[in-house]
Amino acid sequence: MQQYTRYLYWTSLFLALTSLYLIEKGGKEIYPFFSWKLFTSPSGSENTEEYYRIYRVAGRDTLRVTYQPTKIYDENNLALIVSFYGKKIEHHEYKADNIRKMRSFMRSYRPEYSHLLLYKESFHPQDLGKPSFKIKKH
């Protein structure tokens, strides 16, 4: 494998630069390892992962609102915005203002949804794939 390292390096660099160019031109990322999150915070590097998620009420059930990319935001940006406001709301930092901003953002992002809930989900990445895998919602 060591003999191919040089070729893998140059191929990876070429694909990363190609992805950067395509993203700058408004296209989609073609190289899955272009994202910085793979190297800085891989899933499993912490004992517990926590994410803030938006759920909508549909009848007597709650359904997770999936992040659909728009012209302005991609999936990562949407997750970061929800996480930013979720942390502020949870820690009571100008809670009323941040709830208002979060509602305003969600109205502009998904205006068809009303009755939204903000949950903090936590799980242990080491348990992924096990039959006893559970996600705790708060």
What is the rounded distance between the termini? 46 Å
Total number of strands: 4
Derived from helix and strand composition plus strand pairing, the structural class reads alpha+beta
Please, what is the oligomeric state? single chain
Strand percentage: 15-25%
- Order of strands side by side in the largest beta sheet? 2-1-3-4
Shape: extended
Approximately how much helix is present in the residues?
A: 25-40%
What's the rounded overall pLDDT mean? 83
Poorly predicted tracts of residues: none
Helix count, DSSP H or I runs of 4 or more residues: 4
Protein name: DUF3592 domain-containing protein
Keywords: Membrane, Transmembrane, Transmembrane helix
General description of the model:
The structure is a single chain. By secondary structure, this protein is of the alpha+beta class. It has four helices and four strands; from the N terminus they run ααββααββ. It has helices at residues 5-24, 37-40, 75-90, 95-109, and strands spanning 49-58, 61-64, 116-123, 136-137. Strands 2-1-3-4 form a four-stranded antiparallel sheet.
How do the strands and helices of this protein lay out in sequence?
Blueprint: H1 5-24, H2 37-40, E1 49-58, E2 61-64, H3 75-90, H4 95-109, E3 116-123, E4 136-137
Antiparallel strand pairs: 1-2, 1-3, 3-4
